[in-house]
């Protein structure tokens, strides 16, 4: 067994560990001190609260003095002592020091412990704290593992289980290394998105878990949508989220209710996986379909309508809805008895031989004559396109959601916009198949509705049906060439498919438009600035990306702009600024191979250390061995470090690539010249200068090398 004086087997403790492993830490203390009341942890910010548990004024002053020394001194003495039925000891932490207070210790025990025992106790407890953390942390991600996930759930009482979100980010990886990089990126992105108050767990196989207690049930759904949007904007291509909300019904007779709660979230996750590459599913919707905002009419309700519309070929149905049951009852009693059908909080009125506008006029007249509260009104008529009589009843509910956009007393007649609204409800839940069905049906009602076409195109894109998506956006632009959303979405599709010039064209046209979609236009700035950088338009890239980065708040992953700002400043020859931005990019994401390799080259140019530059470039090619640009960076550094044989091996593949062949020939000539092989250097210079389409900068460097060779 290792000595207690040996280094800890894992990283130092962090503040979040004290909360995450609190139950286990308390058990460790209980093994040494059988009788005590509380185990509490204090840092500089909350040490004032220790007055409730530490009665000794001298002890409180010692605690405050310790924290003050921690701020001014790099090293400080740790202590453990007992005073007034409390044991106080310091805990070394990764970020800032902490003091543990064990209060309510037995008075006989506290009066007879020695200083040697206390010091041994402190070392043993801290060592066990570290061992517990080591057993509960996944070594690949640094996140708490599935064991801690279930232990955390079991701390909640059975009748109040928290919300659980399961996030699956399965990679498109060809090797274990790519899978590891994908996992690291997922951890970085989720940590940036999720509030630090909510614990994040890694459950294995690219599955992450979040546990949280929310004030309102809808907060869980809001968090799920936020995570989905964040991950999409961060470049993940397959995202599935399943959730079970706080206080979801469970079988209280089941002895393993915590695992049942997890199974509910898993079931929602499996359903989300069937809906498309980007999807979210709420278990509450699956378990309670009758509460879905677009629940279909019951068989009993349709049976009542069939008795009324039998033999009637032209009719309208009005649906009223109120949150107050007393208003619903009063409304039902006040209307014509033989035309009224009630179900739950809904009141329907069947109007034979009546058009939709006349039905809407009558409904407004009825409501104005009655003293009732806020009531929504939806109207649908038959015949209407190819909808059946039974579908007309369902159309009333869709018109009702359409009406809600006009306020608590809104009213609407079912039309193409109603189908856009219902499609958006399905889309927000991640049910893309149902959303597409609604949008396509809406286009039957109004083939030139640009909102429906845009919504349909976005849904197709989310389902990886990019050709169908592009057709939708192109159709919108044929009706309205300046439509911002169509230009924006078409640009995203072109960017995703590698058609950078088409994407830039769409984004530039969208950039010139005045639009109410401020969030999308803000996002457009990043995409446009990124493409400017990739296209070599570095000045324009900085002009767009820098203001975008500076104005972003915590609501978006603004750090995704860091690599492109670094690359753009390097392209402009401002390597001092490039170095700052690239360092920030690597601090945010340590596996960013492009930034790592370019930073190595910038270090070489700025003479920050050839060895460091070489290490960065070599590591970048290990992360992305097929990236030809990284090989070019590495070759330049290898030549500067006089590693001529290694440089030749690196340039070998670059000479076969069309995009890097010309510069690789120049570097080959330079490498042979530096090595003293004049004949081989002259061969590559001759080969290079025979190229009639040679870039002016490359040509100038080639002539310089040629002159230097002539002088040898």
Q: How helix-rich are the residues, as a percent range?
A: 55-70%
The chain-level mean pLDDT equals 86
CATH superfamily of one domain: Reverse transcriptase/Diguanylate cyclase domain
Biggest sheet strand order reads 6-7-5-8-9
Q: Point out poorly predicted stretches.
A: 1-9
CATH class of one domain: Alpha Beta
CATH level-3 fold name of one domain: Alpha-Beta Plaits
Based on CA atoms alone, the radius of gyration comes out at 33 Å
Strand content: 5-15%
Alpha-carbon distance between the two ends? 67 Å
Description of the structure:
- Strands 6-7-5-8-9 form a five-stranded mixed sheet, sandwiched between helices. A five-stranded mixed sheet has the order 11-12-10-13-14, with helices on both faces.
- 57% of the residues lie in helices and 11% in strands.
- It contains 31 helices and 14 strands.
- Residues 1-9 have low confidence and may be disordered.
- Among the domains are: 15-136, Beta-Lactamase (2-Layer Sandwich); 146-291, Alpha-Beta Plaits (2-Layer Sandwich); 592-712, Alpha Horseshoe (Serine Threonine Protein Phosphatase 5, Tetratricopeptide repeat).
- It is an alpha+beta fold and 712 residues long.
- The relative contact order is 0.04.
- The chain is flat.
Can you lay out the helices and strands and say which pair or pack?
Layout (H helix, E strand, L loop, with lengths): L14 H6 L1 H11 L5 E5 L14 H16 L7 E4 L2 E6 L6 E6 L3 H6 L2 H22 L9 H9 L8 E6 L7 H18 L6 E5 L2 E6 L5 H16 L5 E6 L12 H17 L4 E5 H5 L11 H11 L5 E7 L3 H10 L5 E4 L2 E7 L3 H14 L6 E7 L6 H15 L7 E3 L2 H13 L3 H14 L4 H13 L3 H14 L4 H13 L3 H12 L6 H17 L3 H14 L10 H10 L3 H14 L4 H13 L4 H14 L4 H13 L3 H11 L6 H15 L2 H12 L6 H15 L2
Parallel strand pairs: 8-9, 13-14
Antiparallel strand pairs: 1-4, 2-3, 3-4, 5-7, 5-8, 6-7, 10-12, 10-13, 11-12
């Amino acid at each position: 067994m290792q000595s207690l004086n040996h280094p800890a087997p894992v990283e130092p403790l962090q503040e979040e560990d004290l909360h995450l492993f609190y139950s286990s830490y308390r058990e460790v203390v209980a093994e040494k001190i059988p009788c005590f009341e509380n185990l509490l942890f204090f840092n500089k910010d909350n040490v004032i609260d220790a007055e409730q548990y530490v009665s000794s004024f001298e002890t409180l002053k010692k605690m405050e003095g310790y924290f003050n020394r921690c701020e001014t001194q790099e090293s400080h003495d740790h202590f453990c002592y007992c005073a007034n039925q409390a044991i106080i000891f310091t805990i070394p932490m990764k970020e800032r020091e902490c003091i543990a207070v064990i209060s309510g210790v037995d008075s006989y025990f506290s009066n007879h412990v020695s200083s040697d025992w206390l010091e041994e106790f402190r070392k043993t407890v801290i060592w066990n704290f570290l061992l517990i953390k080591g057993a509960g942390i996944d070594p690949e991600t640094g996140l708490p593992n599935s064991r801690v996930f279930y232990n955390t759930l079991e701390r909640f009482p059975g009748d109040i289980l928290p919300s659980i979100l399961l996030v699956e980010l399965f990679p498109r990886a060809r090797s274990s290394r790519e899978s590891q990089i994908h996992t690291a990126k997922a951890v970085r992105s989720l940590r940036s998105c999720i509030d630090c108050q909510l614990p994040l767990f890694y459950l294995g196989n690219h599955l992450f878990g979040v546990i949280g207690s929310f004030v309102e049930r809808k907060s869980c759904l809001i968090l799920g949508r936020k995570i989905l949007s964040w991950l999409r904007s961060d470049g993940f291509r397959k995202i599935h989220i399943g959730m079970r909300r706080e206080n979801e019904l469970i079988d209280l007779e089941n002895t393993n209710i915590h695992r049942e709660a997890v199974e509910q979230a898993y079931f929602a996750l499996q359903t989300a996986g069937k809906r498309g590459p980007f999807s979210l599913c709420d278990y509450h919707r699956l378990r309670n379909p009758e509460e879905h905002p677009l629940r279909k009419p019951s068989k009993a309700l349709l049976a009542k309508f069939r008795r009324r519309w039998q033999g009637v070929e032209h009719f309208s149905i009005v649906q009223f809805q109120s949150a107050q049951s007393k208003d619903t009852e009063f409304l039902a009693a006040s209307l014509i008895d033989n035309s009224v059908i009630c179900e739950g909080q809904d009141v329907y009125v069947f109007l034979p031989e009546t058009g939709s506008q006349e039905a809407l006029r009558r409904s407004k007249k009825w409501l104005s004559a009655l003293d009732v509260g806020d009531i929504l009104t939806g109207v649908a008529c038959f015949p209407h396109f190819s909808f059946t009589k039974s579908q007309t009843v369902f159309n009333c509910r869709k018109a009702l959601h359409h009406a809600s956009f006009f306020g608590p007393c809104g009213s609407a007649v079912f039309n193409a916009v109603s189908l856009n609204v219902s499609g958006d409800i399905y889309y927000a839940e991640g049910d893309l198949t149902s959303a597409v069905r609604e949008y396509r049906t809406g286009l039957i009602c109004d083939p030139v509705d640009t909102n429906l076409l845009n919504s349909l195109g976005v849904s197709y894109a989310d389902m990886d049906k990019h050709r169908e998506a592009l057709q939708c956006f192109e159709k919108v632009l044929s009706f309205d060439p300046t439509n911002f959303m169509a230009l924006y979405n078409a640009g995203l599709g072109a960017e995703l498919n590698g058609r950078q010039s088409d994407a830039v064209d769409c984004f530039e046209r969208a950039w010139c438009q005045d639009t109410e979609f401020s969030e999308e236009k803000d996002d457009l700035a990043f995409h446009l600035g990124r493409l400017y950088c990739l296209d070599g338009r570095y000045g324009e890239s900085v002009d767009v990306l820098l203001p975008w980065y500076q104005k972003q708040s915590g609501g978006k992953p603004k750090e995704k702009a860091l690599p492109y700002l670094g690359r753009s400043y390097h392209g402009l020859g401002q390597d001092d600024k490039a170095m700052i931005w690239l360092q920030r990019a690597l601090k945010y994401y340590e596996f960013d191979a492009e930034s790592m390799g370019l930073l190595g080259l910038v270090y070489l140019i700025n003479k920050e250390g050839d060895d460091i530059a070489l290490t960065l470039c070599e590591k970048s090619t290990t992360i992305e061995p097929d990236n030809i640009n990284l090989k070019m960076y590495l070759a330049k550094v290898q030549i500067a470090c006089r590693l001529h044989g290694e440089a030749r091996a690196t340039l070998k593949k670059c000479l076969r690539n069309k995009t890097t062949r010309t510069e690789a020939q120049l570097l080959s000539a330079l490498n042979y010249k530096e090595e003293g092989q004049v004949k081989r250097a002259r061969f590559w210079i001759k080969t290079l200068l025979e190229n009639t389409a040679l870039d002016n900068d490359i040509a100038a460097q080639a002539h310089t090398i040629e002159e230097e060779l002539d002088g040898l």
